[in-house]
Design brief:
Layout (H helix, E strand, L loop, with lengths): L6 H27 L4 H9 L17 H13 L3 H19 L5 H13 L4 E4 L18 E5 L2 E11 L7 E8 L8 E7 L8 E4 L13 E11 L3 E5 L2 H7 L2 H29 L13 H31 L3 H29 L9 H9 L9 H12 L17 H7 L4
Parallel strand pairs: 1-4, 2-4
Antiparallel strand pairs: 2-3, 3-7, 4-5, 5-8, 6-7
Helix pairs in contact: 1-3, 3-4, 3-7, 3-8, 4-7, 7-8, 7-9, 7-10, 8-9, 9-10, 9-11
Cofactor: FAD
Organism: Paenibacillus beijingensis
GO molecular function: acyl-CoA dehydrogenase activity; flavin adenine dinucleotide binding
């Protein structure tokens, strides 16, 4: 286990730290107006970060998932919504560049679009009926119909962060007529910021936190995807996207929320070490209640960060596996828990001085509210960690809810009593 960073990794992390300082100056405005931080995306492009998730062999920065984890954590401390959205670009380019079933020429074409042509990409997996507690609900219902020269897509995707600012969307669709619900085709769909025929973006994202991610719902009604943007086909969507792609599929989200938690801790520390109550010589950080809360926050977030770094290092070192998935599940659980706890403690310790909207803490606390529900949610993470820690096969666990077709009725139809 070696968390030492290369000079290249350190340089990119420092670039992200500087960008975060700039993003912070506009974060409140974008949060208030729920506007897309397009100028931030442009600055990320100008800084050469559109290839942050791409290996060097394809012309990317090649900093690995460990380097990416620390870089996106820095960005999140400036504007969490920008980091959470840009993570979708990293998800798309990283997943595609590292996927073993996608042809080399297709990978190079996608990388060329992102790095050389400066095209922004988002990843879209959620659908209106999906649940962050139920992994199987993410199997795509968006339908792909074969037509001359490519495919047409029909259906909806929900919670599509950054979609209206993106040039392409990385998504999965179910092939028309295939009886296997997990049969899926990965596509890179050209949408040109929602201007492509057949793409309708519904502005529904008016939320408590992460307001500037603009995670709206998208209708696809006959959108054409040419054969050259067909990525690959799988008959095991859950294994392909969630297990094999655990780092990009949800590890990046975890790193973003680690940044939110660390940002809350940093803000609370600065406020409590600077403010003095009337009639007292020492700042409020000396108060036993406040130093107790800061101590717990710092300890929990430090442990969560180490869990995240270990998962990232393990992923870089050993690649995708059930063990890698297990490490990311633990890290994501710890980050969701510690960031939620930090939000609560900071609001108590900082009091009304931290709750006014002109201060950054109030926004970060609202952003932190989404940490436990970002897929897979905190309960789903604990569930998987529990099974894997006991050496049990998650596939053998009983379904938590009754399916649309009750098991008994299904068995009777098949002639089983």
């Amino acid at each position: 286990m070696d968390f030492r960073l290369t000079e290249e990794q350190q340089k990119i992390i420092e670039t992200c730290r500087q960008l975060a300082g700039d993003f912070l100056t506009r974060a409140a405005e974008h949060d208030r107006d729920r506007t897309a931080p397009v100028e931030n995306y442009e600055k990320l492009r100008e800084a050469g970060l559109f290839g942050i998730a791409v290996p060097k062999q394809y012309g990317g920065l090649g900093i690995g998932f460990l380097g990416y984890t620390l870089a996106i954590t820095e960005l999140a401390q400036g504007c969490a919504a920008t980091a959470n959205s840009f993570n979708m670009h990293a998800n798309a380019t990283g997943s595609i560049a590292h996927h073993p079933d996608i042809p080399e020429n297709v990978k190079r074409m996608v990388v060329d679009l992102a790095i050389n042509q400066g095209k922004l990409m988002c990843t879209s997996v959620s659908e209106p009926s999906s649940s962050s507690l139920l992994a199987t609900s993410y199997t795509p219902s968006l339908e792909a119909r074969r037509v001359k020269g490519g495919y047409e897509l029909y259906g909806k995707k929900a919670f599509c962060s950054m979609v209206e600012s993106s040039d392409y969307v990385y998504l999965y669709a179910h092939p028309e007529g295939d009886p296997n619900p997990q049969a899926s085709i990965g596509f890179l769909v050209p949408i040109d910021k929602g201007r492509v025929k057949g793409v309708t973006i519904h502005d529904v994202w008016d939320t408590m936190g992460m307001r500037a991610t603009r995670s709206n719902t998208v209708d696809y009604n006959g959108v054409f995807v040419p054969d050259e943007l067909y990525l690959h086909r799988t008959d095991e969507f859950l294994n392909d996207f969630i297990i094999r792609g655990a780092n990009w599929s949800f590890g990046g989200f975890a790193a973003v929320y680690l940044g939110v938690g660390l940002g809350i801790l940093s803000y609370a520390t600065e406020l409590l070490t600077a403010r003095k109550a009337k009639g007292y010589a020492q700042p409020q950080g000396f108060h036993p209640d406040n130093r107790h809360r800061i101590g717990i926050m710092a300890s929990e977030l430090h442990a969560a960060k180490l869990a995240m770094l270990y998962a990232a290092w393990y992923s870089d070192t050993y690649g995708p596996s059930i063990a890698t998935f297990h490490h990311f599940m633990r890290a994501k659980y710890m980050i969701a828990e510690s960031t939620s706890n930090a939000a609560h403690s900071a609001s108590v310790a900082c009091g009304a001085h931290g709750m006014t909207k002109e201060l950054h803490l109030e926004r970060m606390i609202r952003d932190a509210a989404t940490a436990p529900i970002m897929p897979p949610n905190i309960d789903a993470c604990a569930d998987q960690v529990g099974l894997l820690s006991m050496g049990l096969n998650p596939m053998e666990a009983m379904p938590p809810l009754q399916s649309v077709e009750p098991p008994v009725e299904s068995a009777q139809k098949e002639g089983v009593s």
